[in-house]
Specification:
Residues 150-337 form the Phytase-like domain. This protein has helices spanning 124-129, 314-319, and strands at 26-27, 41-49, 52-58, 64-72, 75-82, 90-97, 102-110, 112-113, 116-117, 136-138, 154-159, 165-169, 174-178, 185-191, 194-195, 209-213, 219-223, 231-238, 243-250, 257-266, 270-278, 284-292, 326-332, 342-349, 352-357, 363-367, 377-378, 384-386, 389-390, 398-402, 409-413, 419-423. It is mostly beta strands. The protein has a single domain, classed as Methylamine Dehydrogenase, Chain H (7 Propeller), CATH 2.130.10. The radius of gyration is 21 Å and the shape is globular.
Length: 424
């Protein structure tokens, strides 16, 4: 992936003893930058001719890591470290050159709401909705932080034929319309105000994942009720009047955990998606599938237990006569050579898709002692503890380790023979 050096300082902390915060410091190898990670969402903006295309991508809420558990009077609260608390999700402009097999970043811009830059820190309202955001946002010094400006965690982007930009937000969940001039927020549909109310009534695994527009104008996105759910919900919403239909996508029988993230619509409205997860033995699975809604029932027309999909298992829905969508297997992406988890699909034409992975900024976190942070606890004073004892001062820091991972792209061609080839 070709990312001009000039863009990298946007994600730079400090060299050597980086990310200094209050009484503790995080460390990162001197001279290193965080990688630009923009696989959260990508969409085709326009064809330029001669095998060249303009694309628009978006980053997520920034470089984060699961942190230690905070010990409070009310019990134990998990934390999430935000390595750059002031990080604002970025909109990345790219050019795809299929002849030379190059995907190059050509520009990076920030979005805003009411002239205030977006924040990647989830608001308290989001933390009450999402299991993912039950984690308390903290700095690398373990101090609580709140968002500055409007919070957004993009996990999908779509550009319609008239140039309108839509983003699937994982923080509430919501679908956000952006200005195609400055990426400012124009409007936002949320549960109960444009989206089905049952999405707001209980905790979710996370907000929306993936976004694509069908030929009939509807926006397709998905949400998973909980961490080990036996189905996902695919939502088709008409942005002209925000009427929505919700459909059940059952968990494949061979998977222990699964997610449905990337969407792309081709041809007459065929919806492709990437189904990923793990088997009970921990084997990673990543598949390209085709989804058909023919004969499937609109979930919003059926009574849900407690009014929530979280409290409504698949067996109950089946007993009520709910017919799920049909899923057709297209290809095993791992066997085809796509060796990274895919988080975004881009329609290039009716027989080609671009698959993109999310690199998570090429970094992971551990305690200075080498221990995994979630295995440690925080005292009320903010000190790291293990087995009930405060660690020595030299083990109180957070160490950041580069993973060597980066954002990659593969060109997928189908139907037969299916091929996957990496783009530089």
């Amino acid at each position: 992936m070709n990312v001009p050096y000039a863009f990298l300082p946007l994600l730079k902390g400090a060299e050597g003893a980086a990310f200094a915060s209050e009484k503790k410091e995080g460390t990162f190898p001197a001279g290193r930058y965080l990688d630009l990670s923009f696989g959260s969402g990508m969409a085709l903006r326009e064809g330029l001719g001669d095998g060249r295309y303009r694309l628009l991508a978006v980053t997520d809420d920034g470089p984060t890591c699961h942190g230690p558990v905070r010990k409070t009077r009310d019990g134990l609260i998990p934390t999430r470290l935000y390595l750059i608390p002031g990080y604002s999700p970025l909109f990345v402009e790219l050019t795809l050159d299929l002849k030379n097999r190059v995907l190059q970043v050509t520009g990076i811009r920030r979005g805003s709401r009411n002239s205030q830059p977006y924040s990647g820190i989830p608001p308290k309202a989001a933390r009450s909705l999402s299991l993912d955001f039950h984690e308390e946002p903290v700095t690398t010094g373990f101090s609580p932080i709140e968002p500055r400006g409007s919070a957004i965690n993009p996990q999908g982007i779509a550009v319609t034929s008239d140039g309108t930009i839509w983003v699937a937000d994982a923080s509430l969940p919501s679908v956000v319309r952006l200005s195609n001039r400055d990426f400012g927020e124009v409007s936002r549909a949320i549960p109960g105000k444009g989206l089905p109310r049952f999405l707001a009534w209980s905790a979710m695994e996370s907000g929306f994942q993936g976004l694509a527009q069908l030929p009939n104008g509807r926006l397709a996105t998905t949400i998973t009720p909980e961490r080990r759910a036996d189905y996902a919900v695919i939502l088709l919403s008409n942005p002209s009047d925000w009427t929505s239909r919700a459909y059940v996508y059952p968990k494949p029988s061979d998977l222990d955990r699964f997610s449905l993230k990337a969407f792309a619509s081709v041809g007459d409205g065929t919806l492709f998606a990437v189904e990923s997860g793990e088997t009970e033995r921990g084997k990673a699975v990543s598949r390209l599938v085709r989804i058909s809604f023919k004969g499937a029932d609109d979930l919003s027309e059926f009574p849900l237990r407690g009014g929530s999909i979280v409290d409504t298992p698949l067996r109950y829905l089946k007993s009520e006569g709910v017919t799920p969508v049909r899923r057709d297997f297209v290809a095993d992406l791992i066997k085809a050579g796509v060796d990274k988890p895919i988080s975004s699909l881009v329609r290039i034409d009716d027989v080609a898709l671009l698959a993109v992975n999310e690199s998570h900024y090429g970094v992971r976190c551990r305690a200075a002692s080498g221990a995994a942070l979630p295995s440690l606890r925080l005292s009320p004073d903010g000190d790291l503890m293990k087995n009930g004892k405060v660690l020595p001062d030299e083990e109180q820091a957070v160490a950041l380790h580069p993973t060597g991972n980066s954002t990659n792209a593969w060109l997928l061609k189908f139907p037969k023979p299916f091929t996957a080839s990496r783009i530089r």
